[in-house]
Amino acid sequence: MSEKKTRKRAAAPKQSLPAEWCMGCLVGKYFHSISSDGHLGWQGCVVGSPEPGWYMVVLFDWFVGGENGAARLVAFSDMTGWLFYQNAEEMNYGYQYGDASALRATSAE
């Protein structure tokens, strides 16, 4: 009787995350937050990362009812559903015509 050898698949090489996924990679990005019920929340800019897993955000006043430049410390785990943009112009476009626009429309219903 011949012994049947099972051939194991070679494991895929481990790939490291791209450099842009590094600690603090969201600093300088603009955002719209999304609430747990899927509605549009804050709008602002990520200004710092004081320690791993945490980001300091500054909120834009017209979106939060007059809190001009209010800062919040937010855990990365709370930001996973947010919409991020390269600059304010891109964020404003997203609010008017992009994904944030669709969320804004459903929030108004």
Q: Could you describe the 3D structure shown?
A:
This protein is α+β, with helices and mostly antiparallel strands. It contains two helices and five strands. The protein has one domain. Helix content is 17%, strand content 28%. Strands 4-3-2-1-5 form a five-stranded antiparallel β-sheet. The longest helix has 10 residues, at 99-108.
Topology record:
Blueprint: E1 30-34, E2 40-51, E3 54-59, E4 71-75, E5 83-85, H1 88-96, H2 99-108
Antiparallel strand pairs: 1-2, 1-5, 2-3, 3-4
Q: Strand order across the biggest sheet?
A: 4-3-2-1-5
Average residue pLDDT:
78
Oligomer: single chain
**Rg, nearest Å:** 21 Å
Q: What is the approximate shape? A: globular
Main β-sheet, in a few words?
Answer: 5 strands, antiparallel
Helix content: 10-25%
Secondary-structure element string: EEEEEHH
Contiguous helical run count: 2
Structural key phrases:
single chain, alpha+beta, 5-stranded antiparallel beta sheet, 5 strands
Short description:
It is built from 2 helices and 5 strands; from the N terminus they run E-E-E-E-E-H-H. The chain is an alpha+beta fold and 109 residues long. Strand 2 and strand 3 (54-59) form a beta hairpin.
